[in-house]
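User: Show me a protein chain along with its predicted structure.
Assistant: Here is one chain, sequence first, then structure tokens.
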Amino acid sequence: MLNLQPVTLAKHANLYALMLRIYPPAYQQLWVNQDCNWYINSQYNKDNLKEELQLAHSNYYFIQFNNLTIGILRLVHQPNKKTTKLHRLYLDQDYQGQGLGKKVMTLAITIAKQKLSKTIWLEAMDTQTQALQFYKKMGFIITEAYALDFDLIHPNLRGMYKMTKQL
């Protein structure tokens, strides 16, 4: 059974350990020195989590499947623009290809609609072909392309897409 459980400050250690486990296999090849721990430290440290949890109009969840935590989902709602940003969706590679991503995305879309959003959008790296295929299958279209201005990522891997879906 798949469900979402809120990320809380008290669960910081769980979040951090999860991201140390699931982020590197999918993304360490992006980084010039192959070390993505600094990124995990910057995004998933306790202070950053506290700030993200205090942000109004956002939801942050652990993705659980059969009582195991297998990923995270973070949504940021912009009520004045009637849009929701899918800010983070990470799923353990061991659980990909089982239809769980589709179920999580369906839950994200349901939450966005409950927040009265008319669109949901995300940013994806243009080299992450599996993710791009998944998002396209879920009805997202590429609406913008740009490159990250970030020296720690290999220059040929800095391409990004903004993808949008009408709700």
